[in-house]
Design brief:
- The structure is a single chain.
- The protein is α/β, with parallel strands linked by helices.
- Among the domains are: 115 residues, Rossmann fold; 147 residues, 3-Layer(aba) Sandwich (Rossmann fold), CATH 3.40.50.300; 58 residues, Homeodomain-like (Arc Repressor Mutant, subunit A), CATH 1.10.10.60.
- It has 20 helices and 14 strands.
- Strand 4 and strand 5 form a beta hairpin.
């Protein structure tokens, strides 16, 4: 590796470590702890690559970056930051950074990136103001990789496929991608294909009947998000492919998500291979909450703050309580954690959520489940046994308030889930089986956060 590298960071130890590593790699290094010196060297034509921290004693490097790009468009600038949010990554990309590295980072990865920068001409990006901050929360390494991919996609209209389990935040990622894109002033239109009856999907997307225009046309100039695209029937897949191959395909950016391995569905003949390659230009994999446990404190505080903004009581949470949240197995991922925090806010009278409250609520969260019923036992007797067990968990104290709604939800959710399973996910048949209106059923599915998995045999 060759060339002169300018290192700007107000932390002397970081400047020393990076300077030594770059010198050993064969580079010449100039290091500074402020932006004014960095700008002076850039103006004088110094350096082949710039490596800079964001927050410096005399300003924000991302505010200076457009001036550097304008003055020396060929000069690659690598941005480092301990403020590891999607907003920082996207701001760096839009301001003209060659790349973005969240702190802390591996020295070998850093040297590889600097080496890449010395060998490439730096393209001049279009500089735009940063979009609003969106609720992508977390500093874990896996989320940092998601942020870096999103930042690189802000200037493109490439097809994106978001892979992730239910509750990992696929729609939030899609909305973030839209909000930071050049299409941000146009509509973002989403459809959950798993929650839409198969016979209505094509009409919903492309119009017909009461919906004359369809969601694809409604997303003109913007983004159409196909949530759970693995649930799209083959005839609708063919229609979508024809539209994407048409002359006006650039009018709408299509972002899709899936919980399943689409390549397996392709091999089984249940998903079109040509559509898969059309949608899966850039894949983004969202980690399960179990893979990013260190993000739980940030997520919990975020949900507390957002709930307070929405008018719910303002609460704080102790570090011991956060440790208990980290130790729990969140099968429902971030969405389950969010719902749990909101329930705590409503049900707990204390202003500070402590470890005892978390321990008690997690026990109720896990233990209010079915015991093995006795043979020929009536439902009422089984429910009574469950409730006795639940009351016994509180050692003579009263359970949290709101018990009636809690019990009704506990009964209602499995009833709807099992009914959907019995009908293969057909919501018309399920509503008829339960004796309720289909709109009521769809509302309950949303409220109870029920994942609709249709039988592929019914497509």
């Amino acid at each position: 590796m060759d060339g002169t590298i300018i290192v700007a960071d107000d932390d002397r130890s970081i400047r020393t470590v990076l300077s030594q590593a770059l010198t050993r790699a064969g580079c010449r290094v100039r290091a500074t702890g402020n932006l004014s010196t960095l700008w002076k060297w850039v103006e004088e034509g110094e350096g082949d690559v710039v490596v800079t921290d964001v927050m410096m004693p005399d300003g924000d490097a991302l505010d200076l970056l457009p001036r550097i790009v304008k003055k020396r468009p060929e000069l690659p600038v690598i941005v480092m930051s301990a403020q590891n949010t999607v907003t920082t990554a996207v701001r760096a990309s839009k301001a003209g950074a060659f790349d973005y590295m969240p702190k802390p980072f591996d020295l070998s990865a850093f040297l590889a990136l600097v080496n890449k920068a010395t060998k490439q001409m730096h393209p001049v990006p279009r500089v735009e103001p940063a979009a609003e901050k969106l609720p992508l929360v977390g500093h874990s390494p896996m989320m940092q990789e998601v942020y870096r991919i999103l930042a690189r996609l802000t200037h493109t209209d490439l097809g994106v496929m978001i892979f992730g389990d239910s509750g990992t935040g696929k729609e939030i990622v899609a909305r973030t991608l839209h909000s930071f894109s050049q299409r941000k002033s146009a509509p973002f239109v989403a459809i959950n294909l798993a929650a839409t009856p198969p016979e209505l999907i094509e009409r919903e997307l492309f119009g017909g009947g009461e919906n004359a225009t369809g969601l694809y046309a409604a997303a003109f100039g913007g983004t159409l998000f196909l949530d759970n695209v693995d649930d799209m029937p083959l005839d609708a897949q063919m229609r979508l492919l024809r539209v994407l191959q048409g002359q006006n395909s650039d009018d709408v950016r299509v972002v899709a998500s899936t919980r399943q391995d689409l390549q397996t569905l392709v091999a089984q003949g249940k998903f079109r291979e040509d559509l898969f390659f059309r949608l899966n230009v850039v894949p983004i994999r969202l980690p399960r909450l179990a893979e990013r446990l260190d993000d739980i404190p940030d997520l919990a505080r975020h949900f507390l703050a957002e709930s307070a903004k929405a008018g719910l009581p303002q609460k704080t949470i102790t570090s011991d309580a956060l440790d208990h949240l980290r130790s729990h197995s969140w099968a429902g991922n971030v969405r389950e954690l969010e719902n749990f925090i909101k329930r705590l806010i409503v049900l707990c009278p204390e202003e500070e959520i402590g470890a005892n409250i978390i321990r008690r609520e997690l026990a109720a969260h896990m233990e209010l489940g079915p015991q093995e019923p006795q043979r020929h036992q009536k439902l009422s007797a089984s429910v009574e046994a469950h409730l006795k067990h639940y009351f016994s968990l509180h050692s003579g104290a009263l359970p949290p308030k709101g018990l009636y709604d809690k019990i009704i939800r506990e009964v209602e959710r499995p009833l709807i889930m099992l009914s959907l399973e019995a009908t293969g996910g057909n919501q018309l048949k399920t509503a008829d089986l339960l004796g309720i209106n289909r709109n009521t059923l769809r509302k309950k599915i949303r409220e109870l956060d029920i994942e609709v998995l249709r039988s592929k045999k019914m497509m």
